[in-house]
Amino acid sequence: MRAASLGAVLTAAALLVLSTAGPALADQVSVTGSGSGAEEVPEPGENDATVEGDFTIDTEKGMITYTVTVAGNDEDVAAAHIHQAPRGEAGDVVVTLDANAINAGTEATAMADPALAAEIAASPEAFYVNVHSPSFPAGFARAQLEAAAPGSVPAGDGSSASGVPTVIGVALVTAGVGALALGVARRRGGASA
């Protein structure tokens, strides 16, 4: 009886942990990108310029929270966008980013149609971030997007955290079911003795 009670408690705790972690995992996706002026097409961008970006995409609301940083550029960012095209190709602008936030290195938010946000989240490699300056109107640096590292989930503030709550929840479910099964087996064994 004790094992069955323990199993029920562990299973309830697991459901609580998973229910609080679940919505963030379902609606928000982390995407990242890192690139340089050499990756610009059809013409190369600024020689020593680099761009890095971290994006948290809310696929339900179409909200894209991001931090994009640049280095090695001679001029401030005049414009920045997410474009749609695979690596090595130029593509159309699909999301406008805040150049002032990029120059300041601060977090910002852009809105997109939820269907577009879901498309970027599902296939980030089909999109890239591009930063432009007066001397490089086509772009001084480009970074193709990609899925963030596995186990990384949005923390809700534009940063990422590990998927530890999910791991804990799954472990609690497994322990709870095991304890419940043990309690049932002991109970049946005791009834037949």
Automatic annotation (TrEMBL):
Membrane-spanning residues: 167-185
Name used for this protein in its record: CHRD domain-containing protein
Signal peptide: 1-26
Domain CHRD, first and last residues per copy: 20-147
Keywords: Membrane, Signal, Transmembrane, Transmembrane helix
Origin species: Blastococcus mobilis
Region (Disordered): 30-50
Stretches with biased composition (Acidic residues): 40-50
